[in-house]
From TrEMBL:
Its EC number is 2.7.13.3. Residues 41-254 form the Histidine kinase domain. It catalyses: ATP + protein L-histidine = ADP + protein N-phospho-L-histidine. Residues 1-33 form the HAMP domain. The keyword Transmembrane helix applies. GO terms for cellular component: membrane. This is histidine kinase. The chain holds residues 111 to 364 of 364 of the full protein. It is an enzyme of class 2 (transferase). It is found in: Membrane. One of its GO terms (molecular function) is phosphorelay sensor kinase activity. Keywords: Kinase, Membrane, Phosphoprotein, Transferase, Transmembrane, Transmembrane helix, Two-component regulatory system.
Length: 254
């Protein structure tokens, strides 16, 4: 325990030094504790796809199951999940260490919103949700990093689509006092009230998402919140189980 290392002294100057030293020691211990937690969470998340893959590979090796396109597809799916986890973890560790460079500029979000809605619309399945944009075309400029703003929107729209099997997704934007608020509203599976406090925590996924909506990593919203905060904004969620969710974030007006 670092705090035990510098004993009390009779000399006032030394005691002052002791206090600063102890303060620094506790803050280092906090960092170390966080690092340990991150590694233990990461290991846990990596283990799940690896266990599934090993299971299939062992059964293929000893002939318990026959190689079939379906088995290979499952293996590919788990490999993709590992790949996504690796990418997300890299972003998360940069975000948590404060190493995500942010280049603030005056940005008009309107063209970005239009192009994202078009891009996501092209990816939607015929029986999936519909997506629409509902905002004025003369939005006030914000002071933001365009690419990071896009990353936030891609994460929120990706979630809205993933957790909205049918129904609709609406992207809205409007200014309120000195901020522009952008909201992604969906009519999907929603989040139970008791789960809401955890949604921005890394690796948290609702029971239901884990069971039925494969492909998630539980990292997107943790990164998203960090990206919003790094640009001086806030993120909020309102949701009701089986009714849908609204994720709204703000960016300062330019
Ligand atoms: P994931 O990769 O699992 O989607 P996120 O960090 O983006 O990770 O989200 C964490 C969890 O929050 C999700 O697993 C899901 O349970 C819940 N969630 C996020 N967005 C939505 C949404 N639009 N509707 C319902 N649940 C959501």
């Amino acid at each position: 325990n670092l705090q035990e290392r510098m004993p009390k002294s009779e000399i006032p100057e030394l005691n002052q030094l002791r206090l600063s030293f102890n303060r620094m020691a506790s803050s280092l211990e906090g960092v170390e504790q966080k690092r340990r937690e991150l590694i233990s969470d990461m290991t846990h998340e990596l283990r799940t796809p690896l266990t599934v893959m090993r299971g299939y590979l062992e059964e293929l090796a000893d002939g318990t199951i026959d190689a079939s396109p379906e088995i290979y597809q499952r293996l590919v799916r788990e490999t993709r999940r590992l790949e996504r986890l690796a990418n997300d973890l890299q972003e998360l560790s940069k975000a948590e260490a404060g190493y995500l460079p942010i280049h603030l500029q005056k940005v008009d979000l309107y063209p970005l919103l239009v192009s994202l809605v078009e891009r996501f619309r092209d990816q939607l399945l015929e029986d999936g949700p519909v997506i629409q944009l509902d905002c004025a075309n003369d939005l006030p400029l914000v002071c933001a990093d365009r690419d990071r703003a896009e990353q936030i929107l891609v994460n929120l729209l990706g979630n809205a689509i993933r957790y909205t099997p049918h129904g609709s997704i609406t992207l809205r934007a409007q200014s309120k006092s000195r901020f522009l608020w952008v909201a992604v509203e969906d009519t999907g599976i929603g989040i139970a009230a008791e789960d809401l406090p955890f949604v921005f925590e890394r690796f948290w996924r609702s029971e239901r998402s884990r069971d039925r909506y494969s492909g998630g990593t539980g990292i997107g919203l943790a990164i998203t919140r960090r990206l919003v905060e790094l640009q001086g904004g806030q993120i909020q969620v309102e949701s009701e189980r089986d009714r849908g969710s609204i994720f709204a974030f703000s960016l300062p007006l330019a």
